[in-house]
Amino acid sequence: MTARSLRGTVLLAHGSRDARWREPIEAVAARMREDDPAVRVSCAYMELAAPDLPTAAATLISDGATAVHVVPLFLGMGKHAREDLPLQLDALRQRWPAVAFSLAPIVGESPELVALLARIAIKS
Questions:
Q1: How far apart are the first and last CA of the chain?
Q2: Which PANTHER family does this chain map to (predicted)?
Q3: One-letter-per-residue 3-state SS of the chain
Q4: What is the pLDDT of residue 12?
Q5: Which residue, of 40, 83, 91, 96, is most buried by count of CB atoms within 10 Å of its CB?
Q6: pLDDT tens across 50-86, in order?
Q7: Between the CA of residue 70 and those of 8, 60, 86, 88, 122, what are the distances in Å?
Q8: pTM exceeding the 0.70 threshold for the entire prediction
């Protein structure tokens, strides 16, 4: 990213018809804003909830983001992360060729998250 680029982050999760399911995802976004009030973050869902990834990206871009970083909040490498997400990113890159889109590894592959989940499981 150049000094002039503005990065937005999309926290991408699976989605559910149950509105309460979104609460932990939105809590991560709220914590990001608390830790850094200048952060630009939006939540998105692959299915069963809104907004979807294109809508969340459009919102960040309309707010001035010139780079969008997608963080898949999946514990495992399933079909959405392996097949659907790359196709959606390709479509976003075609729709907004001037925007730099990047993709983080799924959070379930993070050693830090694995260690945290183990500590939570031991304490419970």
A1: 42
A2: FERROCHELATASE CHE1 (PTHR33542:SF5), SIROHYDROCHLORIN FERROCHELATASE, CHLOROPLASTIC (PTHR33542)
A3: CCCCCCEEEEEEECCCCCHHHHHHHHHHHHHHHHHCCCCEEEEEECCCCCCCHHHHHHHHHHCCCCEEEEEECCCCCCHHHHHHHHHHHHHHHHHCCCCEEEECCCHHHCHHHHHHHHHHHHHC
A4: 97
A5: 40
A6: 999 999 999 999 999 999 999 999 998 778 788 899 9
A7: 9, 12, 11, 11, 31
A8: yes
pLDDT digits 0-9 by tens, 76-122? 877 878 889 999 999 999 999 999 999 999 999 999 999 999 999 99
Q: Which amino acid is at 103?
A: L
Q: What is the pLDDT of residue 4?
A: 64
Residue with tokens 């503005």: 6
84's tokens: 């659907």
Q: Edge to edge, what strands does the sheet with 100-103 contain?
A: 40-45, 7-13, 67-72, 100-103
